[in-house]
Amino acid sequence: MWVGLVGLVGIGVVTGLPSAWAFARSARRIRSASDVPETEVGLVLGAGVRWDGTPSLILQGRLNVARDLYDAGKIRRIIVSGSPESRGFSEPVVMRHHLVSHGVPDDSIVLDESGVDTWRSCVRAAGEFGLRELTVISTDFHLPRAVAMCRRLGVDAHGVGHHAAADWRLQRVAARGVRREFLATVKAFWYSR
Question: DUF218 domain location, by residue (predicted)?
């Protein structure tokens, strides 16, 4: 009986501690577009490209948040970070094209084709780009982990999210994302230590 109880406590620590870490590290740092502090750079994390070379709906939501922040003067440059190979397309190139076609000047957009996952995007922002502060732009369920990871690397990060569940076309995707995020947060906590 004690072995089973100890096992359950151990599982609870291994899975619960990472979520507590992400929420503690991102507390009061996830903001709305209107109350996020101004930063020089917004970091948009990739979320897939469709077969026709356009951003997935979830990625379009993130890019629209970035455009709104840019238009409001909350950010002055945008790093689009993603995989160089997403269904035969460079995800950052697709992201840049979407932003430019929606009025963001091309010279305000920086490509990061090494951001194949959240950790690598944060590492590149801190190391390669030398950023000490930024605004992470992602889907709302992903922000606690993304902000926590950037902060783990010494970046003063805030986050603004796209609320995917509010779009009826994305409700199932958002529900899957929330479930996936739990496991990704466990991995991120132990990986980034």
Answer: 43-160
